[in-house]
Design brief:
Blueprint (H helix, E strand, L loop, with lengths): L2 H15 L18 E11 L3 E11 L6 E10 L4 H4 E10 L2 E5 L2 E4 L5 E14 L4 E9 L3 E4 L2 E7 L8 E9 L5 E6 L4 E5 L2 E11 L6 E7 L8 E13 L3 E12 L10 E5 L4 E7 L2 E2 L2 E6 L2 E6 L10 E11 H4 E3 L4 E7 L8 E9 L5 E6 L3 E6 L2 E11 L6 E7 L4 H26 L9 H31 L5 H32 L4 H29 L5 H33 L1
Parallel strand pairs: 1-11, 16-26
Antiparallel strand pairs: 1-2, 2-8, 3-7, 4-5, 4-8, 6-7, 9-10, 10-15, 11-14, 12-15, 13-14, 16-17, 17-23, 18-22, 19-20, 19-23, 21-22, 24-25, 25-30, 26-29, 27-30, 28-29
Helix pairs in contact: 5-6, 5-8, 7-8
Length: about 575
């Protein structure tokens, strides 16, 4: 096939793969004729499946109009883009400085959802004067992987309720990515330092443009990792006199290719980190590190392959020099000046940060304000939380605390005194009564048995699902499949019988867990329903009442629902595990 034929074929694939979406809407109100609007749009597709759109608008009066008043600015986005916008910010250029403008999620008179910016005071433009505005958006879930290629889609032009005089568009792919095709075919492209740059310019653009750019490219030497970070908890433990220990626990949903030993996940940590390691619930994970581009890349290998649509929970631990994060202030105070997170390439749907102050230390103040809790006889922690944290957010924070370095010197004396006091009290208590053997409460033992049984049930469920995948892809024989399935089902039946008895006892002795059990049972019903759908689907395939392509598509959907319900059960069981650990 010729190069032109291949390009046409790729364009057709892109058009079939993506629906057209309406662009953004800008609303400028003024008197007189329609203003002149010049637009410069910069789009950057970055690693991790994110797209950053940076629009600069220059608004000026039309010819023969002496003044134009601008009161507000509106940028709208059609479905599904409002739900995909993780970050938005708007600015006005004033005396050479970008001034931040407040914005709110709103809806236009035409029913378009978007972001409305009311200028602090109306701006009156005279002849030859220009109002310069800027809008920055960060979009997620607009880059997808299909087989070995990557797709990205976003509006080509801003969709304004008035004519755009000129619009220049510049698009940059990730460094090392290789462009395959783009639709519409209106771009010139070049490479600059291994970065593909696409450019397009147009004049006299009619209102309400709806054209969408569809990009098809290969990752090349760039990363093809796309994950949804559902939750990240960072614990920073200040340990004078030398270090700060950091533990980051990730809950990731894999939306890209399978993670395995030869395709690890790369986690970036600061250059001067030491003792870096990763672990999951079963222990340490295989890792290696590489210094690159101002950070350390920690390559984390999963214990088992993490396929597309599966979740992965693990923890990365490392230490930083204390002087890198903490400086001495006045009045015996210390200032922790750091960031909630850095060097990441995804949106964190829920970010939690806990700062554990040194033993004997006390909280003074912080920016932003945190919640303080007591975690030990002489220890306090400060907690922060944030939703949809992105690479464009300001994630820096400062925390002032009191601490006397002599605490470490006198701490042995203090503890010795406490031990002597405890020994005296214990001796007096022994005189009054015989020591009783410490027993673990029955309800705790019962809950522990429930958690262990359910963890075994979940493991067997995953094992059975993989067995189904092996027989479906014909990697094992039917006899081997039947043999292994009988073993799994036998073990599952024994576990299920024991679980029924344990659940009955929990309902009698711990009624406060009734809602937790009900959540698990609802998810179990969903799993059973989807497993029934799978069996019916297999029967239809054997009867040749469905094509194999449609079978695979529906099977993936049913398995996705099963895994989603199973993940809800896993989170609930994990919370119960924390109660008994």
């Amino acid at each position: 096939m010729s190069k032109a034929g291949r390009t046409s074929g790729y364009s057709l694939i892109l058009l079939l793969f993506f629906a057209l979406f309406m662009g953004s809407v800008v609303q400028v109100r003024g008197e007189g004729a329609s203003p002149i609007v010049e637009v410069h749009r910069e789009v950057e597709v970055i690693e991790g499946g994110l797209v950053v759109i940076n629009d600069t608008f220059e608004v000026s009066p039309p010819p023969n109009v002496t003044s134009l008043e601008v009161r507000e600015f509106f940028m709208g986005l059609p479905p599904p883009f409002p739900g995909y916008t993780d970050y938005h910010a708007f600015y006005r250029l004033y005396n050479g400085t970008w001034i931040s403008l407040a914005s709110t999620l709103s809806e236009s008179e035409e029913g378009v959802r978007g972001f409305r910016v009311i200028l602090p005071t109306p701006v009156t433009l005279g002849e030859g004067e220009t109002l310069v505005l800027r809008g920055i958006l960060l979009l997620s879930r607009v880059v997808r992987i299909y087989e070995q290629q990557m797709y990205a889609y976003f509006p080509l032009y801003p969709s304004l309720p008035l004519n755009i005089s000129t619009c220049e568009v510049e698009i940059r792919l990730p460094r090392g990515a290789i462009l395959i095709a783009v639709d519409p075919a209106v771009f010139s492209n070049s490479t600059q330092n291994l970065v593909y740059v696409l450019r397009h310019s147009r004049t006299s653009i009619p209102p309400l443009q709806k054209t969408v750019v569809n990009l098809l490219y290969q990752a090349g030497t760039s990363s093809n990792t796309i994950v949804e970070c559902e939750h990240l908890k960072r614990v920073m433990e200040v340990k004078p006199p030398s270090r700060v220990e950091i533990r980051d626990t990730y809950t990731l949903l894999n939306l890209g290719p399978t993670f395995h030993y030869y395709n690890p996940l790369i986690v970036k940590i600061p250059l001067n980190s030491s003792n870096a390691r990763a672990r999951d619930d079963l222990g340490l994970l295989s890792t290696n590190s590489l210094t690159k581009e101002g950070c350390i890349e920690l390559h984390v290998r999963p214990r088992i392959p993490i396929r597309t649509g599966e979740r992965w929970i693990f923890t990365v631990e490392y230490s930083l020099p204390l002087e890198r994060c903490v400086e001495k202030g006045g009045g015996g105070n210390f200032l922790l000046n750091y960031v909630f997170l850095s060097n990441f390439s995804f949106t964190i749907r829920h970010l939690e940060v806990e700062v554990d102050l040194p033993e004997g230390g006390g909280y003074v103040t912080s920016t932003p304000t945190g919640e303080v809790s007591k975690i030990g006889p002489f220890r306090y922690a400060v907690h922060y939380a944030m939703e949809n944290a992105t690479i464009l957010d300001d994630l820096g924070f400062q925390l002032a605390y009191r601490y006397n370095p002599l605490w470490m010197t006198f701490r042995p004396t203090l503890w010795a005194s406490i031990l002597v006091l405890v020994a005296i009290v214990a001796q007096q208590a022994l005189r009054l009564r015989r020591p009783e053997e410490r027993k673990i409460p029955e309800d705790r033992l019962l809950l522990r048995e429930f958690v262990e049984l359910y963890e075994e049930k979940l493991a067997l469920s995953v094992e059975l699902e993989r067995l189904e995948e092996e027989i479906d892809s014909r990697r094992i024989s039917r006899s081997e499949y039947n043999k292994r399935r009988r073993v799994i089902e036998s073990r599952s039946s024994r576990v299920e019988r024991r679980l029924r008895g344990v659940k009955g006892k929990i309902r009698q002795t711990m009624p406060q867990l009734e809602e937790v059990l009900r959540e698990i049972e609802v998810a179990e019903v969903e799993i059973a329903s989807e497993q029934g759908n799978l069996r019916e689907l297999q029967a239809r395939l054997r009867a040749r009442r469905i094509s194999r392509g449609a079978y695979r598509h529906l099977r993936r959907e049913y398995l996705r629902r099963i895994r989603r319900a199973r993940s809800r059960i896993e989170r609930t069981v994990l919370s119960l595990r924390e109660r008994v650990s």
